[in-house]
Amino acid sequence: MILLVNDFDKLKGCLYGWILGAVVVGFVALWAMTGSAPAWTLDEFTGRISSTMKFENQIPSFIIPILLPTIALVLSRSISSLLRVFLSALIVLMTITMISTGSRTAFLLLIMAFLTFFIIGFIERKNTDLYKGRLGLFLIICCLALSGYVIAVLAAFDGHYSLGKTPSWQRPVVALISGMGENKAFDSTREEQLKVVVNNMDQAMIIGNGPKLYGAKFQMEEIHNTYAGVFFEVGFLGLICFLLFLVSTLYTALYSWKLVTNDFQKLLFSALAAGFFLLLLYGGTMYGLRQRNIWLLAGLLISLHSVCIRKSEDN
Question: Which one, of 83, 92, 93, lies nearest residue 51 by Cα?
């Protein structure tokens, strides 16, 4: 990725390829919602949509990194009206797909994605390629749409949550409200896993317990936290190296953003970096290293420097 993506056209090609992938995931998710799709598109017990992914929790890590660049393209002056309409419809499709996973985290990520673009708009307020009025309209529409979704869930909810009976489209809101309204933790799985990590920190603290050995040693299938999982597997040394890699990736993206002079490219760079940041936050609720998106997006961000260098050479 780092060696191949060395100009802006190749970067756009990667983004459009990812967008086409999101189209496939979205349409398969819609197919699954109709009830006529194959069994592998959803969890048969919960009804949560997994589309083309193995698990429903893999959908947010695929969609969130490309959602922000897609929004940036829609709000850019540099694309055609026809492409703008297509990408606008795709944003709606990606939003529906995220909600159909039945994941509270996916719903919160959606809210954070729209709020993040408000921050991007503030950072890029002098960017001549950004439609600032349309950005304001977009954020208003997002607020109204998400509020309407919450109201629809509350109106349809029968008051009794059950993992196998409550529809997946209601689960994100119902799970959040139930978790806040009750004295006990709504989902103790992650809490119990973190307790195991904390209580056994002194075992192999420096070099860790080894890849996936926490399953054999502590009877856990996985740890729903990327950073706790890395620490448990490879210790402080591995965790520090991993965090240095992530920080250096974001620094490279920021440095490239400062180098680039084209407003359209600057807007996309901002959206890519913001998508990566949200993906890292999502990693705090799941073990994200087994999903390739974090590595793919890191490669794209690191390659931004090569894109800037090629641009300056061409000029």
Answer: 93
